[in-house]
Design goal:
45% of the residues are buried. This protein has a 4-stranded antiparallel sheet with strand order 3-2-1-4. Strands 5-6-7 form a 3-stranded antiparallel sheet, covered by helices on one side. A two-stranded antiparallel ribbon has the order 8-9. It is 46% helix and 7% strand.
Length: 457
């Protein structure tokens, strides 16, 4: 009870002090989760976030402040020697991978520059796909201004994470999508301001993606004079100080922050219809860090996934290839989401540059199962269909598989739609083609045959 109301940083340190053991680890919520914000996440080891979808609010609703885990039990393998032999080869292959070597230097922030070049960098609440001052937010700038030190998740050979140390602060990151939404999305061009907002979100227990999109939505509402009382804040584009105060208000449901505390969809419903066109979400989930006008495949994936997250598919590089065509989008989305769902279930990071054909032997050595690449892809498809059934049961419809209205009114600056406005009928046709590949009907519902195929009743 004495930790209720405290931030994640204090809670983490205090619980580790109270539960000294082999190596205690803490998963905790901050004020955002306590106040049941639908943007609240769960902070693990202070700087790693179980984000997106309001998981922090689930803990908050149960009055569960934190979990402490401390154990030293030996992990049992079906074939320990085979597991370690395969894992050793994995590590060698990962270390030899050119993409890994590049990511180790640049981190996820490499996407700031590639996003700018490809026209998918979210800017000014997705009004644009490029940011004039993007150089101030690149990985090169972050390494210089934030004194980056390379680090990693536990025992990881990739080491794409970074410690930022500046002016007495020490945090992990910021990562690309944090920078895209707390930075360019709000037209904030100082990487230190982005890092400060990131640190604040980590402590309060906020998902930086939804929080950043909501901040930019609020700034556009401010610009359009859609609210009379802003609690003394000047929510102008680029106002980093106001952004940080606004984030605090949302976490505590204070003043104008109470209107926006649950994200863009519910805020728009409170503000009025004039705000819905630029409330950037799909079925209530703020979009991840790609402007769909710069990467149409990501727009389709975000629309049909169980929720609008990059963790269901990241395929910007595929669309940059010279041989990739629009007709390839449906198969790319379906196959990519199947693989990612399997990898997520295996708890394999997206950045591991090894396919399911390599994952199957490792899983078999650990468990004694007999999986192949194809059977693992089938697992991913089953997950997709099961999640779809769950969402349909809880109110989602095929009509919800659509991008926000803004993307059908602005000209694309790059990609397949360069110089054109994305036609909604054309986009809906792409969605229908995804349904066909999935084995869903025209309403986006898995057919009885599809459910039977994957053993779903």
């Amino acid at each position: 009870a004495d930790l209720w109301g405290k931030g994640i940083f204090f809670t983490n340190d205090e619980l580790i002090n109270r539960h000294r053991g082999t190596n205690p680890r803490v998963a905790a919520i901050g004020p955002a989760g306590e106040n049941l914000s639908r943007m609240a996440c769960i902070g693990v080891d202070k700087h790693r976030q179980f984000g997106r979808g309001g998981t922090g609010a689930v803990m908050g609703s149960k009055k569960l402040k934190a979990l402490v885990v401390d154990g030293n039990a030996k992990i049992k393998y079906y074939d320990e020697k085979a597991f370690h032999d395969i894992n050793l080869q994995f590590t060698k292959d990962i270390l030899d991978n050119d993409g890994v070597k590049f990511r180790r230097v640049k981190g996820t922030m490499k996407c700031v520059r590639s996003g700018q070049e490809a026209g998918y960098l979210p800017t000014k609440n997705f009004l644009k796909g490029t940011f004039e001052e993007f150089e101030n937010l690149t990985s090169e700038t972050a390494r210089r201004e934030l004194n980056w030190e390379d680090t990693s998740c536990y025992n990881c050979a990739i080491r794409c994470s970074k410690w930022a140390k500046w002016d007495g602060h020490k945090i992990e990151g910021p990562e690309y999508e944090t920078t895209a939404f707390l930075g360019s999305g709000c037209e904030i061009s100082d990487i230190k301001d982005v890092a400060l907002a990131n640190e604040l979100c980590n402590d309060l227990g906020f998902d930086t993606i939804s929080t950043g999109v909501t901040c930019s939505f609020a700034m556009e509402c401010y610009e359009k004079n859609l609210l009379d009382d802003w609690s003394g804040l000047e929510m102008k584009w680029g106002n980093a100080k106001a952004q940080r105060e606004f984030i605090k208000m949302m976490a505590n449901r204070e003043g104008v922050g109470a209107i926006f505390a649950d994200g863009t969809k519910l805020a728009s419903e409170k503000i009025g219809d004039e705000s819905k066109e630029f409330a950037i979400n799909i079925f209530g989930m703020e979009l991840s860090g790609v402007n769909p006008l710069g990467c149409l495949t990501m727009g389709v994936s975000l629309s049909v996934a169980d929720f609008a997250s990059h963790t269901r598919l990241w395929c910007t590089e595929a669309e940059m290839g010279p041989e990739f065509q629009i007709k390839d989008i449906p198969e790319t989305v379906v196959n990519g989401q199947n693989e990612i769902n399997t990898r997520n279930s295996l708890v394999i990071c997206d950045f591991v540059p090894l396919g399911l054909d390599r994952m199957a032997p490792l899983l078999n050595a650990a468990t004694g199962l007999n999986h192949t690449e194809e059977s693992l892809r089938e697992v991913g498809a089953r997950i997709t269909n099961l999640a779809r059934r769950y969402n349909l049961r809880n109110g989602r419809k095929g009509d919800d598989d659509i991008l926000p209205e803004r993307f059908f009114k602005e000209k694309a600056v790059s990609g397949f739609m360069k110089g054109k406005v994305l036609d909604k009928t054309f986009f809906k046709d792409l969605i229908q083609k995804v349904y066909q590949v999935r084995g869903w009907n025209e309403k986006g519902e898995p057919t009885p045959e599809t459910l039977k195929k994957y053993g779903i009743e």
